Structures are given as C-alpha cells and as structure tokens.
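Hi R.,

Here's the chain you asked about this morning:
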Amino acid sequence: MVKPHKARQASYIVFATTLILILPNLAGLVS
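And here is the predicted structure, written out as tokens:
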C-alpha cells in the first residue's frame, strides 16, 4: 500500500520539477 505521506511527497516533487521546467520559459516570455 502507498502511504499518504509518500504520495504527497511525490506530488510535491513533481510540482517542484514542473516549476523548475516552466519558470525559465515564463521568464523568457516576460523579458
């Protein structure tokens, strides 16, 4: 079984990775 804490941690990692990938693109669009 997957523990809720582990699942939440994984979702945070995915969220952080998405931000890291998207932020440079957003900065490029703004500048």
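One quick note: The chain is about 85% helix and 0% strand.

Cheers,
M.
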